Amino acid sequence: MCVHSGEAIVLSKGARWAVGATTVVCVLLFLGPAAPSGGVPLAGPLPSDAAEAVVPDRVGTWNICNPCGSGNDFGRATEIATYAPQVIGLQEACVRDVERIRRYLEEVHGLVYRVEYGAVLRNWNRCGGLPWRPGGYGQAILSAAPMTDRVSVEYPAGGSEDRGYLAVTTLVGGRPVRVFNTHLAERRQGGVRAGQVKVLAAEVARHDRVIVLGDFNAMPYAPELAPMWALAADTDPGCRPSTGDAAADACTATTDWNSKFDYVFLRGMTPGTGTHHVRPSPYSDHHVLYTDLNRG
Prior knowledge:
This protein has about 300 residues and is an alpha+beta fold. It has eight helices and 14 strands. It has helices at about 15-20, 25-30, 75-85, 95-105, 125, 190-205, 225-230, 245-250; strands at about 55-65, 85-95, 115-120, 130, 135, 135-145, 150-155, 165-170, 175-185, 210-215, 235, 260-265, 270-280, 290-295. The strands form three sheets. The protein has a six-stranded mixed β-sheet. The protein is globular, with a radius of gyration of 18 Å. The N and C termini lie far apart (about 40 Å).
């Protein structure tokens, strides 16, 4: 059995496992030269608490880590399929990697996502390809609903590496919302991040219903994040800006080095009670972060 790439198919966990077990040959044929040299692994069952299908009011963010070794795209797709958010923002994303992730999500797990890219670099060392045709690197947004009004912006100053944001309009919980996905300058470059946040916040302020996803490379009390806190609230219920480390103690760490660098900021909407989740992953040094919005 092969799943047609144009069909929006929603399957239960058991059916998704069965499809994965019976369509591996189809995946190999579909992916062709884009597949890892070792072939596509046989899909096993997802965890017992995995989402049955795409959750329409769930949003997530994940820095998938580049470089974190090769051949991780199947595992990354399995992580996303486990939580199945309506929208997820990926940082440190190579276009070719995300395309494989999206194909695995559809062909192995039966989850159909659209994708938009916000590449800020074309880098052979980062993303492979031919030296004269390197792969795009930056942000990506996966959405189960169509996306419109795509805007990709590179910050005037990126620090040690070009950085930017990607914005689209899509549906979350059945309602239109502007979604931003960003990756700010590295952790020791607070002054650069301050300029980047000003650019981002000015655009966020133009919209009434906004979700801002991303790796901000800064703790909540970092002064450069003040413009974001003035516009929106993070979905971590115990994490708010402060002048001391007490705020950091109340925040759920989102990285392997126990720092809170990843955020889901909401403007004009609120998260549901107890719906903020952070899940470590073997495929990245950042954890998968997702939250369910208040359906009211």
